[in-house]
Amino acid sequence: MANLRDLGLSEYEARAYRALLDDSPSTAKELSRSSDVPMGRVYDVLKDLEQRGLVRSQAASRPKKYVAVEPEAALDRLLEAKRDELAEQESQYESAVNELEADLEAGVPTEEGFWTAVVGPEESADLLIERLDTADERVIAVAGGPTPQFDVGEYGDEVAAAFQRALERGAEVSVLLGPDLISTLPATVLERYESELADHPGFEVRTTDRVTGSFHLIDGVEACIEVPNPLTPREPFAMLDLKDREFSADVRETFDPRWDEAELLTAGE
């Protein structure tokens, strides 16, 4: 069950505020008795509550008396204070991330010839998005048959967003699709690519019947190869990530002539 401590009040502050709601106005001495806040602490507690805007005092009275601010206003102020606190923390975390990115990027790059693999739809999607977000020069995306990378749904949206981020970093994005995939794509998928990405000069989609399988080539040195689920082809079974310049060059040699002969694809086709 939620309580005032969840919004940043101490135990004594929460007790004092609740007691004032039940019995206002009250003097500090009266509040100490009704709230079980020690007399030696009650003045500090009341001062903090006033600073938070949860309590008002009647300074002209002797002894000074206190009343609680209405709960709706008090809770709004506590919530706003928490939001400000979280925003400040977010800003601090972002600054730390920016500093660490510059520091960590200066480290030794992953040795070529390294490969890794994950199994499962979510894990495959996470690995692909992670690797796409490292692209600085060019992303080549090839899909010969049904794949969730170019479909309606969260995975397809994440891939499109990763392409968008790559374009914003100055990378080119070249997408080559097979006719079997084109024939099964919902119209909304191509419309999404047309409306969100087509205006970028570095983005282009082409189609050819000389393509099979699904993979991404990143900056000419890294390949992400999708292994589809044999029972449900639109769901990835696994993803293999291989960082190997020689292998990637071999893939480019196969890809380039097929890209050159492929037809430009637009949403209206």
TrEMBL record:
Coiled-coil annotated residue ranges, if any: 72-106
Residue span(s) of domain Transcription regulator TrmB N-terminal: 4-72
Highest taxon, organism lineage: Archaea
Family annotation (InterPro entries): DUF7436 (IPR055859), TrmB-like (IPR051797), Tscrpt_reg_TrmB_N (IPR002831), WH-like_DNA-bd_sf (IPR036388), WH_DNA-bd_sf (IPR036390)
SUPFAM superfamilies: Winged helix' DNA-binding domain
Ranges for domain DUF7436: 109-264
Pfam families to which the protein is assigned, alphabetical: DUF7436, TrmB
Alphabetic keyword roster: Coiled coil
Name of the protein in its database record: Sugar-specific transcriptional regulator TrmB
